[in-house]
From TrEMBL, chain A:
<dbReference type="InterPro" id="IPR040235">
    <property type="entry name" value="Nicolin-1"/>
</dbReference>
<protein>
    <submittedName>
        <fullName>Nicolin 1, tubulin polyglutamylase complex subunit</fullName>
    </submittedName>
</protein>
<dbReference type="GO" id="GO:0005654">
    <property type="term" value="C:nucleoplasm"/>
</dbReference>
UniProtKB/TrEMBL annotation, chain B:
<protein>
    <recommendedName>
        <fullName>Rab-GAP TBC domain-containing protein</fullName>
    </recommendedName>
</protein>
<feature type="domain" description="Rab-GAP TBC">
    <location>
        <begin position="251"/>
        <end position="472"/>
    </location>
</feature>
<dbReference type="InterPro" id="IPR000195">
    <property type="entry name" value="Rab-GAP-TBC_dom"/>
</dbReference>
<dbReference type="InterPro" id="IPR042507">
    <property type="entry name" value="TBC1D19"/>
</dbReference>
<dbReference type="InterPro" id="IPR035969">
    <property type="entry name" value="Rab-GAP_TBC_sf"/>
</dbReference>
<dbReference type="Pfam" id="PF00566">
    <property type="entry name" value="RabGAP-TBC"/>
</dbReference>
Amino acid sequence: MSRVSVPCHVKGTVALQVGDVRTSQGRPGVLVIDVTFPSVAPFEHTSTHTPAKWVTCLRDFCLMPDPHSEEGAQEYVSLFKHQMLCDMAQVLELRLILRQPSPLWLSFTVEELQIFQQGPKSPSMTFPKWLSHPVPCEQPTPLLEGLPDPSRVSSEVQQMWALTEMIRASHTSTRIGRFDVSDHFPLRGSLWPEWVRSDGLLCCRWMAVMT
Amino acid sequence: MLQEESDLSLIIAQIVQKLKGSNLYAQLERQAWASLQRPEIKLESLKEDIKEFFKISGWEKKLQNAVYSELSVFPLPSHPAAPPEHLKEPLVYMRKAQGSWEKRILKSLNSMCTELSIPLARKRPVGEQKELLNKWNEMGTDEPDLSLFRPVYAPKDFLEVLINLRNPNYENGDSLSFRTHLGLIQVPLKVKDIPELKEFFVELGLTTGQLGIDDSTQVPPELFENEHVRIGQKVLTEQDSAAAQQYIRQGSPTALRAELWALILNISSHPEDILYYEQLKTNVIQHDLLVDSLIYKDVKLTASNDDYYFVFEDYLYQVLLCFSRDTSVLSHFAYNSASPPKSYIRGKLGLEEYAVFYPPNGVIPFHGFSMYVAPLCFLYHEPSKLYQIFREMYVRFFFRLHSISSHPSGIVSLCLLFETLLQTYLPQLFYHLREIGAQPLRISFKWMVRAFSGYLATDQLLLLWDRILGYNSLEILAVLAAAVFAFRAVNLMEVTSLAAAEAVLADLSTLKVMPLLQIFLFATVT
């Protein structure tokens, strides 16, 4: 199941505070982050539309087990569809409400916010493309230089096979001359030496490449 | 829950991938092939029959031990968006602090190098190689001139760095308020309090038998000791790592300790391991590193002067010199907040293709480093086994004692745990020591950094390290440090200076570790 990144625009954080932000000495303990989705088409008014409303999809999700200590302070967190309390189809806007009751921290927020949605299930993904869409006139890339064209070799092999079939069918007792193949067959496997730097020391590793 | 299932399959996939490259995998494959000859393996039920064969022959146990070892050592797979630095250390300011500390160490090493005009590494001439090979087993008799060398850093330098560690997002006001910590450590890491420690160390409770308490001469052995030894022998016959780790929480009988530790650390002596050690020995003979002189100096200053460990001087060289050249140690930097220092081949400064890690294992020894190895010499006499045990202990535990990290077993958490325990349960003592300018951490830091090696009597130290292995955590070091202060509280209340406090706590060699821990955790009235 693939996932597709949804482009989102994160608006600036808004601190919720009682009284004037400038004169008050305490720090705000609640932060609101709004996330809009520019790719979602603007809502059109029709005579039968249902008004858009805010629905709580996640409640009291704890990010830091102890608000006064560093545990979980800089962690990566994922939230999934199955954790949501409501259906997540047709989301127009997302609002994150963050609470940090401890006065020990100068600021708090979430960063690197990314939203994903489930990618479309496509049947062509289940087997390789070349099988479903064969390219007729594709020039195959040569595996190794200095080797004959594979189609020429296969046609020669076919000719040899046709000859043997003809001889078998004719049942003569005349002696068959030697068959000779002028070009070399490609190697079934080759060994490549490779100098690999691992752990800062130079070492040599032989790798077998199997066709 | 869907999320837990996918987490579990991720962990399984990670462990399978790690074990696939190991020796055990090749052996299991070979065993499976060989088992096809056996009459009980039928083609129709091939998979089940081979699994049954593994169970009976003990190979399944070996695999279980390997999986258990992976789970104990490597952290759980992290979030897919998390970069590798996050796995090393999640908090950015700690990563920065570790980075600048490493720069300082490297600068110190480089300046020593240029002062003495000694290269960081050089190839030994053939004559010198032969000489070293001949006296490999008695390197202690060598008396090179080490007067110009000095240790790169000592624990007290590291303590100063930890004292200055600050979270920039934390309220670090100058005036004393409820926000400032009264001890030296000023970062708000989560540490356990005594109720949580009681739960964590439940097997050390008053009603459970302990080696170190219930095997003393006054207690008849039929009450606990005999049965405990019998269970230990059974655990060894079963060769079960997890059972051994649970068993050793109550201490290990002296006769079984070497094998039990090897079982818990999942060390078995295969010919490949002995060969690997010999290869490291060859590296030592062929090349001379600057850190070798640092190791010599450290051993001469610390272990050679110790009454218990001076006899093992030669072993220490054999282990530590090989340790600096062991590149397999580099893999532990994936979960260590530290990073191995890089050096460039002469004339190619800054070019990544010519960068190598220096020393090859990425660990620069500090003053007292050899004390991590010394107690192990009592248990293992074969150099390659001793080496493997030390290496495994280092990449599981000891590296946390000298790198800056937020891990619960990291030295910063241990210091904070010690200070918090002392402040909460001995507030008068803490206040008094603070007033006379003798912050308790200044005295106990050196104990914890060395895991008490060289401060306790050897048998007591080994009982302590039994519990480190049993609980897979270093927190017991902080608890013991607090327990020592609690034990000597009466004397400490009467001192009036830091020097006098140090004198009261100078000699720990007569202390019995397990009673102290038990009393502090379970018998102190709070």
